[in-house]
């Protein structure tokens, strides 16, 4: 498996570049294939009225284009090389998903490459303005911190998306700011998780590859080479993303896998033998320098100094949420639904009427086959009294 982290782990070496970031010329060859009714390699070819406009992102995964569908609808087209050595689950997973905080796949088609037997999968998806990484970077450049209200709205939508994925036993396995798309307008704070190229439906007792997830956001059990992890690895990644929104930079910027663990220990302290075994019961590595944990108020000290007195209580709630998510033992991390019930999000429920005219649908939870999922939503009182569900399909 190729190292996802080589040269593409952070804002400074971005995997995805959107809109007013570096852009290349449109791929005319792909346009030609679309227009010339190329040889069909799947059950259907590309949509007739699809025109590629520009390149908005690229990386080891492939290329993302901005395109027009039916001459008026702006969409994104993700073009991925179909490497026969690796199983690509992205299409089969993304076609199953229907959630307001997960990017929707509108269509797909395959195209031939320049070399013999070279095939590319093209996913036609919703278009969003920016990756969250750009929003974080812009704030950092301006020496500003993200507003608590914006962090709350984005974090809430992230946890909602994860709760839906968990109800389907789907683990994203590459949560990071580059894979979280936002509109980031004053009147539109919609957020959607994208890029399911590393996603997998987890099956109990089935081993999974541990060398997964971009390094800065990689859960410690993966560093300890656990092959029987859970959706808790996505929760760890999400905690890192939320911390990055606060700090303006990655919380654990390790230079390699070993250094990544060092960065985590620097803040959380040395894991106990019991914690290591909770991360990976087969681990034989127990000898680490004894380092005490670092207080979260120290971690976020500079950001806290930029927060007004009125918002310090909210900031303390945010730190408490992060501290509960970023713990060594996977079983001790809250589930996404439990995270949504955290007091940091109470203000959203109290001010529910404020969001009724938006397209955020904060309190719409899709029906799930698992009764336990619906039961937890009711027990945690995630839906405000009197709230009427909207349609987001």
UniProtKB/TrEMBL annotation:
CDD domains: STKc_GSK3. Residues 50-345 form the Protein kinase domain. Keywords: ATP-binding, Kinase, Nucleotide-binding, Serine/threonine-protein kinase, Transferase. Belongs to the protein kinase superfamily. CMGC Ser/Thr protein kinase family. GSK-3 subfamily. Coiled coil: none annotated. One of its GO terms (molecular function) is ATP binding. This is Serine/Threonine kinase domain protein. ATP binds at residue 78. It holds the Pfam family Pkinase. InterPro entries: GSK-3, Kinase-like_dom_sf, Prot_kinase_dom, Protein_kinase_ATP_BS, Ser/Thr_kinase_AS, STKc_GSK3.
């Amino acid at each position: 498996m190729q190292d996802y982290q080589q040269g593409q782990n952070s804002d400074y070496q971005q995997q995805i570049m959107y809109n007013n970031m570096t852009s290349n010329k449109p791929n005319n060859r792909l346009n030609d294939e679309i227009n010339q009714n190329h040889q069909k390699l799947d059950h259907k070819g590309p949509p007739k009225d699809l025109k590629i406009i520009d390149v908005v992102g690229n990386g080891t995964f492939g290329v993302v284009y901005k395109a027009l569908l039916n001459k008026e609808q702006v969409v994104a087209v993700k073009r991925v090389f179909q490497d026969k050595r690796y199983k690509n689950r992205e299409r089969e997973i993304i076609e199953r998903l229907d959630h307001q905080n997960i990017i929707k796949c509108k269509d797909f088609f395959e195209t031939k490459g320049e070399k013999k037997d070279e095939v590319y999968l093209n996913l036609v998806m919703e278009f969003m303005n920016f990756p969250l990484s750009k929003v974080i970077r812009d704030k950092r450049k301006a020496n500003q911190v993200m507003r608590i209200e914006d962090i709350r709205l984005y974090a809430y939508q992230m946890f909602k998306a994860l709760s839906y994925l968990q109800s389907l036993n789907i683990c994203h396995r590459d949560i990071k700011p580059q894979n979280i798309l936002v509109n980031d307008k004053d009147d539109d704070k919609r957020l959607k998780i994208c890029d399911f190229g590393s996603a997998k439906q987890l099956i109990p007792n089935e081993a999974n590859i541990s060398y997964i997830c971009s390094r800065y956001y990689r859960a410690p059990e993966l560093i300890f080479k656990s092959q029987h992890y859970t959706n808790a690895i996505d929760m760890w990644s999400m905690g890192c993303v939320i911390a990055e929104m606060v700090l303006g930079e990655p919380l654990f910027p390790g230079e390699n896998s070993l250094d990544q663990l060092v960065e985590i220990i620097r803040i959380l302290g040395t894991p106990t033998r019991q914690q290591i075994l909770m991360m990976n019961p087969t681990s034989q590595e127990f000898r680490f320098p004894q380092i005490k944990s670092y207080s979260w108020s120290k971690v976020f000290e500079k950001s806290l100094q930029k927060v007004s007195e009125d918002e310090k209580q909210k900031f303390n709630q945010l730190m408490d949420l992060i501290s509960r998510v970023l713990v060594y033992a996977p079983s001790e991390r809250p589930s996404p639904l439990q995270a949504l019930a955290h007091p940091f999000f109470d203000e959203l429920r109290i001010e529910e009427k404020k969001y009724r005219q938006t397209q955020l649908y904060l309190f719409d939870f899709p029906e799930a086959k698992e009764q336990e999922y619906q039961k937890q939503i009711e027990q945690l009182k995630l839906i405000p009294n009197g709230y009427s569900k909207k349609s987001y399909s």
